[in-house]
User: What shape does this take?
Amino acid sequence: MSIELSLETLSVAEKVRLLESVWQSLCRHSGDVQSPEWHQEVLMERKRRLEAGQASISSWSDAKARLLQVGR
Assistant: This one.
């Protein structure tokens, strides 16, 4: 199935909602999704930065609110 969207016509808020829909669909079939090997390297680097105090964590609701503010 092919779906064509003109992403340039979507607001940031609409794009976030679209991504959430895609993510929810992927989560329903999570056994079918394989992470690429480089994900492990990225996760380890992020963990290192957190432990070194060079990064912080935001809740998804806080991050989503910030993304939605950018789209206004």
